[in-house]
Specification:
Blueprint: H1 6-10, H2 24-32, E1 48-52, H3 55-58, E2 81-87, E3 91-97, H4 106-119, E4 123-127, E5 138-142, H5 145-156, H6 167-172, E6 179-183, H7 187-191, H8 203-211, E7 216-222, E8 225-231, H9 239-244, E9 249-251, E10 263-268, H10 273-284, H11 288-302, H12 306-313, E11 315-323, E12 326-333, E13 340-344, H13 350-355, E14 366-370, E15 373-377, H14 379-388, E16 397-406, E17 409-414, E18 417-422
Antiparallel strand pairs: 1-2, 1-6, 2-3, 3-5, 4-5, 6-7, 7-8, 8-18, 9-16, 10-11, 10-16, 11-12, 12-15, 13-14, 14-15, 16-17, 17-18
């Protein structure tokens, strides 16, 4: 598994969320699962929490440059852990671990850990067992004295992340005692690493969008990846609900994708369902009037109504691809487009106006057709993509809604849910 930054993939996941109802069997299992005691150490305003039954597994997800990795935690490798990510002017991790599972005597092991933290100029404290709260003792470690004080205040007041609206519902969606849960709202802006995806999406637009996808997001480890579930009310103001209504289709992008592709975002389309769902989102976002005006302006400019163009092409798939020659946007019509050399694009601005800013290009002045696909971008990027198109022989993927591809991982959202997979050769 990629161990660099858990936050990097956490923020991609909401792009693929749908809100589905759990099965009766799954609900029964969740009702019986205990609430992890260490959640008492997670403040109610925490942006994210990582809970693992074994610390050695959970710490693998933390940024490898974190000061917490300087701790020698071998004696606690089997300890339960809860790592909260908080914000007090900057992003601050707070590690809580159950010393009752220490391989050595728990009291001496806890004392040694506190001394080790002090030597590293970390702030740490042993929180004694609490009969009223029905929890055992645990150790807190954080690089921030102010954050330790805030956590201590939450604990003494018997408040925690469990009191945050919607968190208990999110916890119920966790598929095991190992899970990651993070917030929507303003959390993505504070969680996003500096420079994250800066060459692909504008940061402010990306984090603002991600904050509107769902209230909470739950990841449960499964094999070489994670099962992913969003938690949100049934309201079109959450984009997860819009995505849930998009029909699945056939993803054929993998049959032509060039080697060396750095990033790809693929959305299958079925009309009129996709069009109706996307316009519901605009309406719920109080943006439908502006949306309609933008499409009207493009109609007046080009002489073609973008919605009419979409119907005539009968779009079945749209993809943003960042390859070695530059970014392009691809459209797969229902009827394969005949090959055509690069020519001036008469429909500039249509694709981001219809499908969102994720498909916007700095230069969409050129278009061409190859292997049944329409290709849009700068003249150089379009020609480079056509030259690099690779008939891989990969089978089309049926039952797909949306896919995000990167060299080391793939996130696929289809009929059976959402799954994030690390490639075995990484």
């Amino acid at each position: 598994m990629d161990k660099k930054r858990v936050l990097t993939f956490l923020l991609v996941l909401p792009l693929l969320f749908s809100c589905g109802q759990p099965s009766r069997k799954a609900e029964a299992v969740r009702e019986e699962r205990r609430i992890p005691e260490l959640l008492a150490a997670v403040p109610s305003d925490a942006l994210a929490v990582i809970c693992y039954d074994r610390l050695s597994e959970g710490m693998r997800l933390l940024d490898s440059t974190s000061v917490l990795h300087k701790l020698d935690l071998k004696a606690f490798k089997n300890a339960r852990m809860a790592l909260s990510l908080c914000y007090n002017g900057s992003l601050v991790p707070v590690l809580a671990l159950d010393t009752g599972r220490a391989e050595a005597d728990s009291a001496s092991a806890a004392g040694a850990l506190l001394a080790q933290a002090a030597a590293l100029r970390l702030h740490a404290e042993y929180i004694r067992p609490d009969a009223q709260a029905r929890r055992r003792g645990f150790v807190l470690i954080t690089p921030s004295d102010a954050q330790l004080t805030a956590v201590r205040r939450h604990i003494s007041g018997y408040t925690s992340i469990l009191d945050a609206p919607g968190f208990r519902q999110a916890l119920a969606e966790a598929g095991s005692d190992d899970f990651i849960i993070f917030r929507g709202g303003g959390a993505p802006e504070r969680l996003a690493p500096k420079g994250w995806l800066k060459d692909i999406f504008p940061r402010r637009e990306l984090t603002s969008f991600l904050g509107k996808v769902a209230e909470w997001t739950v990841l449960t480890p499964d094999g070489n990846g994670f099962d992913v579930k969003p938690v949100c009310e049934k309201d079109d103001a959450y984009f997860a609900n819009i995505l849930a209504d998009l029909p699945s289709g056939e993803c054929q992008l993998g049959t032509i994708l060039p080697e060396g592709t750095r990033f790809a975002l693929d959305l299958t389309v079925k009309l009129p369902q996709t069009r109706n769902a996307l316009e519901r989102w605009q309406d719920a976002s109080v943006n439908l009037t502006r949306y309609d005006k933008q499409l009207d302006a493009l109609r007046d400019q080009s002489g073609k109504d973008p919605r009419k163009w979409e119907q005539e092409v009968d779009v079945r798939e749209i993809a943003l691809v960042h390859a070695e020659g530059g970014p392009v946007v691809l459209v797969r019509p229902a009827k394969a487009a005949a090959d055509r050399e690069c020519y001036e694009n008469p429909w500039r601005g249509f694709l981001p106006a219809l499908y969102g800013k994720a498909f916007a290009l700095a230069d969409d002045s050129c278009t061409a057709c190859s292997r049944g696909w329409q290709i849009y971008g700068s003249p150089e990027a379009v020609r480079a993509f056509i030259d690099a198109m690779c008939p891989t022989g990969n089978y089309p993927v049926k039952g797909s809604r949306l896919v995000v591809l990167q060299p080391d991982k793939t996130l696929a959202w289809g009929k059976k849910g959402i799954y994030l997979l690390w490639h075995s050769n990484q």
